[in-house]
Amino acid sequence: MPDDTCSPSGTSYPSDCDITQGLREKAFSRKHSDERSYLWRSCLPRAKQIKLLLLDVDGVLTDGTITYTHGGDEIKSFHTRDGLGLRLLQEAGVEVGIITARTSEAVTRRARDLSLKYVFQGSRNKIEAYDTIISELKVKPEEIAYMGDDWLDLPILTRVGFAITVADGAAEVRNVAHFITSSPGGKGAVREVCDLIIEAKDMTQTLLEKYTHP
Q: Are 139 and 111 in contact (CB under 8 A)?
């Protein structure tokens, strides 16, 4: 905690005590900035009900950049912390699926690496894929979270119990989202959502112990 124990130095330069106290204040400030936001805490009741997390890819699992090689192949980059977050979420009993308008071999491989059961690519009409998944899993809208970043995601975002977007999502999407991540797409935003749902289900410590005491 910051204190007021430093005496005036008598010069225009800070004393050692002033410097030390300044460092304490910065540490104190960092500690409090790490606390969960009001928005995070307010979303815990919604997140606790979630049995299925559905994700867009471009702009959510990636930063939205699409790179083509000279051979015409498409390159996408995925964040490792998002990957671990999705594995942890599945360990917590939550199903995960992908619905994306584009088709990419990189997405197929990433989904396989993460053992995702529900992967719909080339879905310009995302509602059809959404209806197929919820029909198969027999889940209710309030038990579904969807994370998207642009207009194509609006039809699902307005139907689910927990609508999520990234920090750099389109304004129209941010307007309907219950939760907006602090990170942009492809930079750990999905991990934030995984952590939120896991915390809401009171599974954080249980999962952490599995990794710290294997």
A: no
For the segment 30-44, what is each residue's pLDDT rounded down to a tens digit?
Answer: 444 445 889 999 999
| Token couple for 113 | 């690496």
Per-residue pLDDT tens for 133-181?
A: 999 999 999 999 999 999 999 999 999 999 999 999 999 999 999 999 9
| Phi and psi based region of residue 72 (left: phi greater than 0; alpha: psi -120 to 50; beta: remaining) | left
Close Cβ partners of 98 (under 8 Å, ≥ 6 residues apart)? 54, 55, 56, 57, 61, 107, 111, 116, 118, 119, 120, 121
Contact 181, 187 (CB under 8 A): no
Q: Could you tell me which residues are beta bridge partners of residue 95?
A: 52
